[in-house]
Design a protein that fits this description.
Layout: H1 3-16, E1 20-22, H2 46-49, E2 59-67, E3 88-97, H3 102-116, E4 124-129, H4 141-147, E5 156-159, H5 161-164, E6 165-167, E7 173-183, H6 187-192, E8 209-217, E9 220-223, E10 226-228, E11 238-244, H7 245-252, H8 265-275, H9 284-305, H10 314-334, H11 345-352, H12 358-392, H13 394-399, E12 401-402, H14 404-414, H15 418-427, E13 431-432
Parallel strand pairs: 1-2, 4-5, 12-13
Antiparallel strand pairs: 2-3, 3-11, 4-7, 6-7, 7-8, 7-9, 8-11, 9-10
Length: 442
């Protein structure tokens, strides 16, 4: 099932359930100064849940573009290393604002994933909140009772605060959650791996047991690390859900990686041609690089599309960081030090938008190319400054050794990555201290 069809089925399902369909809000989160970017579907609806604003609709659904690069939810370090984390993803969500309860939310989820998307019932595992004595929160037997109508009891598991109690960012809203996990193993890869029962692998970071959908029963508010009910703000029927679109595509398209879905294949093909490398031919460095670039270029495009330009402040800083991560890793792995990211923009735009103002697309491409050129120009110039510093440094001249202090100085002063310093050391036959454990120096 292609990604466009998957989206349509989701929207049509909730339209038939009389939900108002909202557009994805901008990824720049201006309503909450603590959040750089919109990082979940509920962001644009938080004031309705808190009772600060009245809304005409009590049932809502949408597909929200989210970026998780900063703060509590930061997936940057996982990108390229696993098969399903992304800096930018789309979240399929439905909400009840004082309308339906957890029972109906579970029913909707079950119908959609088993009857509309036709995911095998035997492949589904459900997790539920087991309670917490410190916060005086009881085991969620209510949710268990509802799930037992659809799921065998051996496929229902109980977990604590970490997995099944959801605090919704900085909005004070919280409540027990129930999560839907899907076993994507098939007969072929079951032979390769231990035939472990799926329910034993839930929440164990197993790449074949994928967390798909989170349904939060917003019963409480949290303040000063205390959880309490506030009847003035919340009724019993407040539901927040979120399902990862990229993961859903992976499951429905029977892939073992989100990068193998049709959301990424066109981008990856373009990267292969642009950089003259191949994906999945037993070269782990190339695979990592391709996944990293294919992820980052989506975020880069969307941030540009929201009228942000690279700079050293807040949103612009994150945009610049993403661009430079792509360029630095490409330089490091392939020794390519010329702009190339701008060539990928057209492919990315085609995936997200059917129509786009041509002038805007050209502007995005030109601004990205300028930023790439600026980076390589600064690297070239700063490398010369680094060379002057090393040649004048008495310690290095005497010991023929570049130590940690020298490396950190060059990085903080000139922004020169460790691998370039290492290349310099090799060229001039200098020994260099190994600093693999120091963060932020690529």
């Amino acid at each position: 099932m292609k990604y466009n069809k998957i989206k349509k089925k989701f929207i049509n399902f909730f339209k038939k359930k009389h939900h108002k369909i909202f557009k994805s809000s901008p990824i720049i989160n201006k309503d909450n100064s603590k959040l750089f970017f919109t990082n979940s579907g509920i962001n644009q609806f938080k004031n309705f849940f808190l009772g600060k604003k009245k809304i005409k609709y009590t049932k809502i659904a949408n597909i929200q573009k989210c970026i998780r690069i900063t703060g509590k939810h930061n997936d940057l370090k996982s990108v390229g290393k696993d098969n399903y984390h992304h800096t930018l993803f789309e979240m399929l969500g439905n909400w009840s604002i004082g309308d339906y309860d957890i029972k109906k939310a579970i029913k909707y989820a079950w119908i959609l994933i088993t009857k509309i998307y036709k995911i095998s019932k035997n492949k589904i595992y459900v997790t539920i909140f087991k309670g917490n004595k410190n916060y005086k929160l009881k085991k969620d037997n209510e949710t268990y009772k509802y799930w037992r109508k659809f799921v065998d009891k051996k496929n229902i598991l109980f977990f604590g605060l970490k997995h099944n109690f959801w605090k919704i960012d900085n909005f004070k809203l919280c409540g027990p959650s129930t999560e839907i996990h899907v076993d994507i193993r098939n007969n072929k890869n079951l032979k390769k791996i231990k035939k472990e029962k799926g329910y034993n692998l839930v929440n164990k970071n197993n790449k074949y047991i994928i967390e798909l959908w989170n349904i939060v029963n917003i019963k409480y508010l949290i303040k000063n690390n205390k959880i309490y009910k506030n009847k003035n703000l919340l009724s019993n029927n407040y539901i927040d859900t979120g399902m990862g679109f990229e993961r859903l595509c992976m499951i429905l398209q029977k892939k073992e990686s989100t990068y193998d879905t049709d959301l990424f294949t066109l981008i990856i093909n373009k990267i292969e041609k642009t950089l003259n490398i191949k994906y999945k031919i037993n070269n782990l460095q190339h695979d990592f690089l391709i996944k990293l670039i294919s992820d980052h270029i989506r975020s880069i495009f969307i941030i540009f599309y929201n009228n942000i330009l690279p700079n050293n402040k807040k949103y612009g800083y994150v945009l610049r960081k993403l661009i430079r991560r792509c360029l630095i890793y490409t330089y490091k792995i392939l020794n390519i030090n010329t702009p190339f990211l701008f060539k990928l923009i057209f492919i990315v735009y085609k995936i997200f938008y059917k129509k786009l103002i041509t002038e805007k697309l050209i502007k995005i491409k030109n601004n990205l190319k300028k930023e790439e050129e600026l980076f390589f120009k600064s690297i070239k110039y700063n490398t010369k400054l680094m060379s002057i510093y090393f040649k004048k440094n008495k310690y290095i001249l005497k010991n023929k050794y570049i130590n940690k202090k020298n490396i950190l100085y060059v990085y903080s002063t000139y922004g020169i990555p460790y691998f370039i310093i290492k290349k310099y050391a090799e060229k001039y036959k200098l020994k260099i201290e190994n600093i693999k454990n120091i963060k932020n120096i690529i």
